[in-house]
Design brief:
Blueprint lengths: L4 H4 E2 L14 H4 L3 E7 L4 E5 L5 E5 L4 E6 L2 H7 L3 H8 L1 H9 L8 E5 L14 E5 H14 L16
Antiparallel strand pairs: 1-2, 2-3, 3-4, 4-5, 6-7
């Protein structure tokens, strides 16, 4: 099965990009907005202040810098290794082949999220409402953060 970038991403033009990731603000801050969402429910976010682009990997609840600009992201999207790492086409193909095709406003979300013991496998994925997906996982990761992660980076603690 040959997949295009359109097959590996979902359309978010109908959503309010300023509020879609509200439950992730604890990690991404107030200046990032989603510019691209993968079929597997991860979000590429643009920092509207400095132009950097990061990706939220919702499974482990991490944020990774991937490009210094939209142009750099476009260039990286032409590299197979980058697409395989961040869009995991083999899993998307497996989902589609099994008849689980995404409808409008859906991503492949976890049946049981990894922080609650769910596996990273196609068998643990299902079409899920995109807003529910980001809200649920953002809240879950927020609640399970360690106390050290809760200290804002501009606060100095003395021990």
């Amino acid at each position: 099965m040959v997949l295009t970038l359109d097959d590996l991403t979902v359309n978010i033009s109908h959503l309010d990009r300023n509020t879609l990731l509200d439950d992730w603000r604890w990690m991404i801050g107030p200046t990032r907005v989603p510019i691209l969402v993968t079929a597997l429910g991860n979000a590429f976010v643009l920092d509207t202040v400095d132009g950097w682009i990061d990706v939220i990997d919702v499974g482990p609840g991490t944020l990774q810098r991937v490009a210094a600009s939209r142009d750099e992201l476009r260039a990286r999207l032409r590299h197979r290794e980058f697409v395989v790492e961040h869009f995991v086409p083999v899993v998307v193909a497996k989902m589609r082949e099994s008849g689980q095709v995404l409808g409008p406003g859906q991503v492949y979300g976890f049946k049981t999220p990894p922080p609650l013991g769910g596996e990273y496998s196609a068998e643990n994925l299902q079409p899920t409402d995109i807003e529910t997906h980001f809200s649920t996982l953002g809240q879950l990761h927020d609640r399970t953060r360690s106390p050290a992660e809760e200290t804002p980076p501009d606060v100095v603690t003395m021990e």
